[in-house]
Amino acid sequence: MKSFDYKKLLPHLVAVILFVIISLVYLSPLLNGEKIVQQDIIKYQGMSKEISDYRAKTGEEALWTNSMFGGMPAFQISVNYTMNIANKIADFIATVIPYTADFIFIYLLGFYILMLVLGLSPWMSIVGAIAFAFSSYNFIIIAAGHTSKAYAIGYMAPTLAGIILTFRGKLIGGCALTALFLSLELAKNHLQITYYFLFIVLFWSLGEIFFKIKDGEIRSLLKSLGVIIIAVIIAVGVNFGSILSTYEYSQQTMRGKSELTVKDNNNTSGLDKDYAMGWSYGVAETFSLMIPNIKGGGNDALGNDKSALDNVDSRMKNDIARQDHYWGDQPGTSGPVYMGSFIIFLFILALFIEKNKIKWFLLAAVILSIALSWGKNFLWFSDLFFDYFPGYNKFRTVSMTLVIAELCVPLLAFIALKSITDNPDYLKKNMKKLYIAFGLTGGIALIFYLLPTYFFGFFSQMELNAYSEQKISNPEYVSQIDLFLTNLEIARVSIFKADAIRSFLFITLGCGALVLYVYKKINKNSLIIALGVLILVDMWLIDKRYLSDENFVAKKQAKNVFQKSAADIEILKDTDLDYRVFNPNGNPFNETATSYYHKSIGGYHGAKLKRYQEIINAYLSGQETFNVKVLNMLNTKYVIRKTENGLIAIKNPEALGNAWFVKQAKIVDNADQEIAALKDFNPKETAVVDKRYNNLLNGFIADYDSTANIKLTEYKPNKLTYISSAKKPQLAVFSEIFYKPGWDAYINGKLNEHFRVNYILRGMIIPAGNNTIVFEFKPKSYFIGQKISLASSILLVLLLFASLYYNYKSKLTPKE
To answer: 809 to each of 130, 165, 168, 770, how far by Cα in Å?
Structure first.
């Protein structure tokens, strides 16, 4: 028996240390205690405040919050699944590596593992990891605070590594690696990224299946597929609590099917197409994968780019400085998906020289990724997926499909680089292919630089429409408008050309390094170092445009985001247990500052309850259709108004309170009639009830008792207690959002059925006499999921130990 060679671990230890250093150097203000201002994290702090306060006070999970949209499940906001071992592992990483730096570290480490599994040397794997990790989109989402998305992207590569390892016959190690990283992937609960990642798995698996069948390795294939299925079952089991709760909740959200009559082709069984495809990548904008500022980069004032104004008429500089840096097809963007100019060159070169036929499956994935990212700009293709591909219509921002290409492009690029370094003579004999790849990348970049206006326009369609209208409305100013547009084009062309020539130079330098290596002017190590420095410098500088030291503020300043206004202070004096606040200033349904201190009618969430969204659309968003009666039935006790002296709180005397008895029930046939009935009804006297709940009315005939009363006596996010007194049975309306999966109602300790009234609220028949009514949120999906998560977590730990032991023993056993 031979001893274990610990020296083999040294390169991997160096890689890990280097990844930590790179992560911390890039985000060096973290070392001074500063924090990144992330808008989505700020919104998260607002939306999760009630949940986190309840957790801190009681040590329990709320599972429901009333701080947004009148009330909603907390599954997609902030729920701790304490039996999930993947969450423990993720938390451990976050304690070792400072927050936000851990994203970069996971990007790097994950792709490094993938490169090692594919047989690359540790040093080349480090360069590959840098190429993937520093793709601009990975840093843009860190700046924005899309944390779950960032983690999910980071765990894609090592999960794929486990699957590849399994296909290559390393069954125990492959199973452990797949189960571990897929568990971490699913734990981040960003289903959209995971969904797109499945496309990568699908294409790679199709390649493996095709070639194994072709080579007659059916038995090996079946073993591999069986082990992968086992790994998936374990990973799903570890996350079963969140998966089951999310699935159950998703049926009730904007991603579920509406009960309203479908009126046009925009409606689907998921999201409306216009909403889902609002952020579609422009066809020409796709060149940003190689030239970042092909459409100006991200939304910003041109004045912040001083060099862009160098050739602008001095009389126009102030006006041009205020215009947008971005002129692409999207409504707005923080920045482009830039994958590195030399990486794109390597990817194109791989298509010509790489002998591993898996390249065609990776190419297919990249083409699909780009085509889907075009969304409404390639509508017939997008419609095919929206209408027929399972689950695709549940997600918005189709440009996010580029994460598929973001992984596949550097993956194939470095498979090709390994082939070049393993057999440089092959490339030497096929230099024509290198020149073709250079022409298709560096050559195109150079042509764009020389002839920018020949290939591109420098105004968005929205801008062109606006300026055309101005010319028609103000014909006397046509010459001034034309002069303005000429100078705006000069500024934008300058931006475009600077990045076009930049990409040309980086491609030329990288290509030159390959030529020197092929002709043995430099050795393999020198090539790897040269390319590593080239790729890091290229992408580091681009990423700094979108995530730099300017994104940081002092820790104290980061904590004091939600300053109390005079209106907040006044409202918080109210000692009532539960009431709601409406803040119509700005967009009330795209902010969480109100939710930080109050229970808000508005909020911010991409997966709010569909019925509530339909109420917003019908009665709470338009001036002509705005319905104060809906605010009243939602117990909106205060409205915040903006005045010259700041925000003030206006008390709403018509708010109906936490619960009330009505005089009659109006039975309607369907959802269309139910929502329409809210237009001209008096919620204080009438409850609108869908006929499906007729049986729960139990033949109830309204006999209103004017002396009856009902009052909220105890409030918790997941438990509400009322007392009532009435001489006769009464129909009560509770100003709480109806959500059947998990909410149970009890009268005097006995389970009692409740039903939906007024399209979104709860109703129940209350017997005569003195009663205690309790609503409690105890979703079975969460508690069953916790048990399955615990069992699966134990299995995962045992699998990891088994894999480590087997790997250790195999290293000690001499090969025959």
So the answer is: 32, 18, 19, 72
